[in-house]
Amino acid sequence: MTESPISVSELLTDPAGVPRARAMLQRAEWAARAFARYDKPGVDAIVRAAAEAGAAKAREYAEWAVRETGFGVAEHKVLKNIACSTGIADFYAGHDYVTPRIDAEAKIVEVPRPAGVVLALTPSTNPVATVFFKCLLALMTRSVVVVSPHPLAKEVCADAARTLAGAAVRAGAPDGVIQVVDEPSVPLIDALMTDERTSVIVATGGVPVVRAAYSSGTPAIGVGPGNVPVLVDATADLGQAARRIVDSKSFDNSILCTNESVLIVPEQAAATLLRHLKQAGAYLLAPDERDRISELLFPGGRFDIRFVGKDASWIAAEAGLRVPNRTRVLLAPFDLVVPEEPLAHEKLCPVLGLVRVPTARRGIDAARAVLRLSGRGHSAAIHSADPQLIMEYGAAVEVLRVAVNVGNSLGSAGLETNLAPTMTIGTGFFGRSSVAENLHPSHLVQWTRLAYNRDPAEPFGDFTGMTPWQTPAGPVPMYPVASNQRGDRLASASAGGQAYHPARSEPNGLGTDAGALREQIRRLILEELSQLAGG
Amino acid sequence: MAEELISFASKQDMLAKSKQFWNPDKTQFWIDSGVPLVIDRREAYFIYDVEGKRLIDVHLNGGTYNLGHRNPEVAAAVTAAMQRFDIGNHHFPSLARTALAEALVSSAPEGLAKVMYGSGGGEAIDIALKSARHATQKRGIVSVAKAYHGHTGLAVATGDERFATLFLADRPEEFTHVPFNDTDAMEAALKARDVAAVIMETIPATYGFPLPAPGYLADVKKLCERYGALYIADEVQTGLMRTGELWAISKHGVNPDILVSGKGISGGMYPVSVVLATEAAAGWLTEDGFAHMSTFGGAELGCVAALKTLEITTRPEVRSMVHYIAAVFTEGLARIQGQYPDWFTGIRQDGLVMGLEFGHPQGAKFVMKRLYENGVWAIFSTLDPRVLQYKPGILLTPALCEELLERTEVAIGKARDDVAKGGRR
Question: Where are the domains of chain B?
Fold first, then answer.
């Protein structure tokens, strides 16, 4: 007698779930086709509903994410989750990615065309916030999303995506507007990325993921890693600078890719700044302590991901160090920014490298050196009251955003500056990316330009108030009620009366009774559904 | 290898031999109908004539190719199964048959608890009718006029005389035909309490998909209960998500005593048919399990194909897509109808089960011919040639739906001109 299970299932299942993923893309293609025809009020209602549903669960998901991944600070994740749900919706409330734009001067009309099917690869570090962020950007621009979360955070991400999906569909979005992969795997992600139904990949994650996205042959928006230098010069308000840096470095235990990596300070300001840093909760490691931390974080020269998002006192304890209770950041001094110095590399934990330089100008060189190691195109920070220096710094460091007199974690992410608030930092050509800005909705919409003959003799048309889209009144798609149960009036007037509406220029066919008819259809469907549930 | 076995000098040569060795009347019929189709390779929703002409298949052999021709997932499952299984021994409990039976029961309307297997739809109908007779110890069978349930001994007697009398296979003394959508006639047929079962296609396919009136099927089920007859739902053409639910009968709030599926159940890759029955309707399985047997019934390769087909078909993504596809055709066909209201006189639609009515007794044959010329294969309804059976696949892409609608629009217009000119198909 055999003890092992008897099964035919290996004949039937693909362990990687690839066929199911392809089915998701095909459903997404249908949803994208429908969503591309929604108008601005319809889109606004959907975005608002999804954002509010996400915000309502900001705390639950923050705690869940910390529990599932084992890193980060729940309290800070709550802030990010709100910033990336209702925060994002509020920020872009006045923007319009749906209605055609008219430039009478240029005799050009621009008609927005959504990306279509967005494949959103989301990281473990900012799992829910990134899911919220990418889904809402897609909804704003009438694209649909398939979320492939990082395996470390797959459960919370799947739930978060479904929360947004449910709210969006209840608010009128097409069925399948947001889908999520439950069991991400390399073959599955590869299948999603290379499938021609994927319109664009928005990849946030490690370098391999981003490179794979760019290599897939599918248009991709990928962003590289950060390694943020922060320069503080003597003209800065050193007390403010110290507090901002410690707050930023300890925010969510340095899990944002915008967290400061190496603090660069001219000798002239060093002593005062260090005093303020200690007051703000930083602990300056002695050389032997620094070595122990360095060996702990970088065994064999590579960052140990065990320490991602862990708090400072836990890390100190792991190294066998005793540090004050209130310690939020460990300051690790070293002399030279060179590849073989582990502490000069990116550290997604509250350990901040510290380099003293003779002058602020030499500090710019040090910042460039930090970025030579990694983080090109990403972000840098400066605390200074000297515009000349700030300009020199900005023109010298190979990044595409420099946060000035603000913590970089939330500064370059656009939450405490007027940059676009984002969970996805475009690293541009410096960072081998196609996008140089903080990811924002415009990146997911392209425009068909109706360009008139420049000859003044050829008049420009009057497009005022025209919109080629109309949000359907009922569920999309309409439940397939048999044609003899839709009612005579509908049958005779059904041209365009179902899931989709005809273009604005065509007579609708439903006329003034459209609302009543749709109500009738809805009632029929509800009856049918309740019958099914009851039966 | 295949070329050695299947080789003809030309298409004409092949057609001549088809008449000589296979079916002269049928072969000639298609030539005369302007559809000289000899299908060679096939893929997804496309079939290719031996001369290379591409056709979008919206006949799908009544849903056999719901998932497209040679669906890669089903093909892979059958290929894998062939490394280990063959048809199997029908007397013994089998891994594949048992797994499929469990999957079918868990996806079925409430009450269905046992699965019996055949190799084709007719055989499955015969099993269903025999089971009902055993369970009720009555002989009478009621079906609707112009019904079609297959060509085997009992099944053919339920259907239209078109297929029965030629073979002296009609049995009017036991098989009553009542008009469709007529509850009173149904009651009259059942009143004597001598009826074992009413058998109904949820939407009668070969009759051109006339839709059951709202409440009709539920009323028939109630009458069955009142007069001690079983309700057999023939879901061979309407099941497997074609109406936007796995089984069309569930849209009517009916839990049948017996449900029959065939055709698409095994993805068009290996024939199998199934009969799902309540414990009460499947009593013979407990009393004498050897009473009905079938060497090929529930062939294990077919069961594996069916398991995979069922898994694909019940994906939430697929149900969603079917609703999208149905909505596109609702809108698109209504638009076409708006152009030719006097000719394209009606649309019968429940999901992706569609019958297109034309204003001429043979209207669908004209449309079929023009569709063929325009790269679409759809068949007229044998028992009502005014009506074209229009059965798009459940995995269609938006692009192919749009292409299909455009081709259909042109063909319908040309067929109208043909009729107006008095042309004969």
Answer: 25-57+316-420, 72-313
